[in-house]
């Protein structure tokens, strides 16, 4: 028994030190460094998913033609991706100019700490397209109008939960709050667009 204890003790200590080292590295990691690209990517994917799905739901409220829904969604995908890329590029470049000016006043330049407008623009555009293509694919092969609308809502809801989980996981933030917040926002956007479009379509206009 003594011999076994002599062998087990150092192994246990080594495993403990290794675990403590891993925990220390994880605790020391600054997750705020992910903030720039994570914000752009999550915002782009969520915006693409919700805005294109809302456009499709709006058209679906007044028209049953699947081609009209798909064309509207595709136009929203292209326009939205371009808008997100340009918006991110301009806003991040403006932020970069402000930081550079401040660094010059402080007489220090740290280029590695400056925000990257091209990275933010690319992340937003790509993420927007990835998010926007999901409701398009969900509606493309369904003939029945009501079933198509239901599938779009279900697909978007699942994707929103996944996006919320990814954002929370990468940023080490509460998962439930993140998923609930993004899911509720998506439902509201689709419901409001559907209701208003249907009301306008059924009015004298």
UniProtKB/TrEMBL annotation:
Main location: membrane
GO biological process: intracellular manganese ion homeostasis
Transmembrane segments: 40-62, 68-93, 114-143, 149-170, 182-201
Gene Ontology cellular-component terms listed: vacuolar membrane
Family: Belongs to the CCC1 family.
Catalytic activity: Fe(2+)(in) = Fe(2+)(out)
Protein role: Vacuolar Fe(2+) uptake transporter.
Domain of life: Eukaryota
GO molecular function, one term: iron ion transmembrane transporter activity
Family annotation (Pfam families): VIT1
Membrane topology, from the record: Multi-pass membrane protein
Iron among keywords: yes
Name of the protein described by the UniProt record: Vacuolar iron transporter
Alphabetical keyword list: Ion transport, Iron, Iron transport, Membrane, Transmembrane, Transmembrane helix, Transport, Vacuole
Subcellular location: Vacuole membrane
